[in-house]
Amino acid sequence: MKQTKPKGSGVGVWLVTGATIALVAGGGLGYWLSRQPQPGVVSEVPAGLEAVPQEALLALSVSTRPAQWRQLREFGTPQTRARLDEALVNWRDRLLTSKGYRYAQDIQPWVGSEVTLALLAPSSETEKPPAVWVLPIQDAVKAQQSLSRLNTSEAAPSRTHKGVTIRTVPNPPDAAGPPLNAAVLDDKLVILSDSAAAIEQAIDAYQSGNALTQLPNYQSAVAETAVPEPFARLYVNGPQAKAIATANSIQPAPLLGLTPLQRNQGLVATARLTDTGLQLRGLNWLPSDSEIRYRMLNTGGELSTLLPDDALMMLSGGSFQQFWQGYSQQGGVVNPRNPLNPNLLREGLISTTGLNLETDLVDWMTGEFALALLPQPDASGARKLSLTWLAETSDRPTAETVLAKLDEVMGSRYRYRVTKAEVGGQPVVGWASPFGSINATHGWLNNDTAFLTLGTGTVPSLLPPSETTLSADKDFIAATATDLNNQNGQLFIDVERLLTSDTPFPLPNLPNGTEVFLTGIRTLGITTAIAGDRLTRYDLNLILKKSTEPVAPLPE
Description:
16 helices, 20-stranded antiparallel beta sheet
């Protein structure tokens, strides 16, 4: 009997999950800039980007509206809030307090409604990207009053770069780290950096016009992703980010092939806070001279109706054939020893089964596909995880011929016990290893949807079709809510149940301290669509737990 899906209490693709957490945590760096008395008007393009070079790795603009920061800090658990607050205090102290400045006295009276943190391109793959803060001036008189002590302090030596005075703010005697460089641009912007070269690059971009605001496709992408009262706005330079990620020799998988950074020139995303968490609207684009062009194939969203509502995870796409064509191009840049390298997958399949990945499998997987993680009881009643693959085809005879060849290989070469049966009016074939340690089943859910499961007890969840499907589950609906009329793919992860259920799930290696932020998430949903031959749109919903404790001020 199918077990009822356990629901969690409280109010939470691939790298996109980590990127969203980083957006929340990184956006949190602006909390100590968040006590503005009135919300400002956010322009179409984030304020201050005229001082961010086009070659920048990324630019993160965050709101300084106090109500939004209070709302953000209401989400999560006591542990996630403590970790976030710790990060905010550390950044506040590093940037201002350690230099003898206080936000309330020296920044708050004049700063605008949005500030930007830009990471510039490093000079080498191993160098840490230098950071520049851009603070728009909302009240020039108060800014002059606050910054006047820079001009009069003998302890703040100055130099000139292209007519702009750069003040170096030395550290107090007990403070470590490089000194802070500060400059004012036309009484409009204050730029800060602990890198002398980075602040000069910002000045060059501002004066020459070679800034992010003039980057082709950027302004139209910002307009396309606009939302009411944005909390944060992000730009990522695709080639720069890809180069840094590719240089990482310990990357766990060729995940760039599954993210909006693959082959793309840029990515723009806008985040807003909701009653249940964070919504993000994004767009990425290919270079204008790219030989690659997307096909307007937005036919996804149907396979969730064939999965049970207790699915822990689902990743789907509109066409596996199209997906593989893009993913397989990563073979030349991914570590050749990585088990998910496309070339290794090809070689591994042909050496173990004699099947050619492209001609024997991909060619008939022309329709929607999905990979799902299902919790299932084994013979002893213990809950195990089962991996389920679904693929739509318009050529069932070819698919059946290939699967029959696979049955023969498993039986004759590997001595698996191959059994045939009929479940829910559909044919299924089971494989069992000689010692019963590995079990798999494949068959058909309808006339054009094939399935393959790894694990025991999965078929009863799929056949006959469940009366309570994933597509009708309220958590799935909330996480995949979108204003996209058509869709190319979806990602759904029930993070809370993955972390709290009695079904063990091995999490990948995450950056130090990141795991605690996962405990504040309930569910994650991403919906994608092809918006043009060079454009991809996506909507992301991060449903977060909500704390019942009052939000206390950050320690001074």
